C-alpha cells in the first residue's frame, strides 16, 4: 500500500531533501575517516565496521539506480555490498554513493514503505552514534519519522496515540495513549529497532505496544544513545 506514490507530494519532497543532505554529510564523513575510524565497529549493525556500513550504503544506492534489487533487503543482498566494497577506500565509497544518489529514481521518495532512502538515513544515525558524533540534523530523522508513523498505522493496523516529550503521534483511530519518556529523535531510534528491549522498557511503562512498532523487530543488545 502506497500512501505517497506521487513523488511531488510534500512528504516525498521532504524525504528527498533529507536524503540529499544526508548523502552530502556521509560523503564528507567518509572522506575524512582515517583507517582507525573506518575500522570502528557499528553496534547497530553487528559484525560491520564503519567501512562495511559505507560499502553497504554505496552498494544499495547503486543497486537502486541499476535495478539490481534481487534479494533486497535481505542479508545476502547487504553482504554482497560489503564484499564488493571491501577493497575500496572510504573516499572511493563516498564517490560511488554520491554518483548513485544523484540518480535515484523519483518514485523511490514517494514510497510509503521502507526503501534504501530510509536505509541510508537510519544508517547515518547508526554511524554517528558509533563514532560518538553529534546527532543528525533534525530534518533528516523527522522527515523519515513522519513517513514511518504513517506506514505503521496503515500497514500494521497500529492504533492509539504515542506521546513523546515533544509530540503526540497518532497511529490509528482508536486505542490507548502510550507515553514515551523521550524526545522524537529517541522515538525514531526506537521505531527503527535501534534501542534494545531493556532500553525501551526504561522509557515507558507500556513497553509491549512500543515494541510492536519496531520496524525491524526486537533486539537485546544495548546501543549507544
UniProtKB/TrEMBL annotation:
Keywords: Isomerase
Any one Gene Ontology molecular-function term assigned to this protein's record: isomerase activity
InterPro entries from the UniProt entry: DinB/YfiT-like (IPR034660), MDMPI_metal-binding (IPR024344)
Mycothiol-dependent maleylpyruvate isomerase metal-binding domain segment(s): 20-108
Tagged with keyword Isomerase: yes
A Pfam short name: MDMPI_N
Keyword Ubl conjugation: no
UniProt name for this protein: Maleylpyruvate isomerase N-terminal domain-containing protein
Species of provenance: Cellulomonas chengniuliangii
Amino acid at each position: 500500500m502506497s500512501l505517497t506514490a506521487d513523488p511531488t507530494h510534500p512528504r516525498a519532497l521532504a524525504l528527498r531533501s533529507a536524503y540529499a543532505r544526508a548523502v552530502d554529510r556521509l560523503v564528507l564523513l567518509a572522506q575524512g575517516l582515517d583507517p582507525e575510524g573506518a575500522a570502528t565497529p557499528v553496534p547497530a549493525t553487528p559484525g560491520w565496521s564503519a567501512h562495511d556500513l559505507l560499502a553497504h550504503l554505496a552498494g544499495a544506492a547503486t543497486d537502486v539506480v541499476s535495478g539490481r534489487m534481487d534479494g533486497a533487503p535481505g542479508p545476502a543482498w547487504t553482504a554482497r555490498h560489503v564484499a564488493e566494497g571491501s577493497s575500496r577506500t572510504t573516499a572511493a565509497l563516498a564517490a560511488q554513493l554520491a554518483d548513485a544518489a544523484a540518480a535515484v529514481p523519483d518514485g523511490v521518495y514517494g514510497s510509503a514503505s521502507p526503501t534504501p532512502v530510509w536505509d541510508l538515513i537510519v544508517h547515518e544515525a547508526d554511524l554517528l552514534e558509533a563514532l560518538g558524533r553529534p546527532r543528525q540534523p533534525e530534518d533528516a530523522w523527522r522527515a523519515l519519522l513522519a513517513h514511518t508513523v504513517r506506514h505503521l498505522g496503515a500497514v500494521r493496523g497500529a492504533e492509539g496515540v504515542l506521546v513523546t516529550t515533544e509530540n503526540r503521534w497518532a497511529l490509528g483511530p482508536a486505542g490507548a495513549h502510550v507515553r514515551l519518556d523521550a524526545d522524537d529523535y529517541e522515538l525514531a531510534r526506537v521505531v527503527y529497532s535501534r534501542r534494545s528491549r531493556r532500553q525501551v522498557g526504561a522509557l515507558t511503562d507500556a513497553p509491549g505496544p512500543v515494541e510492536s512498532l519496531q520496524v525491524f523487530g526486537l533486539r537485546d543488545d544495548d546501543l549507544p544513545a
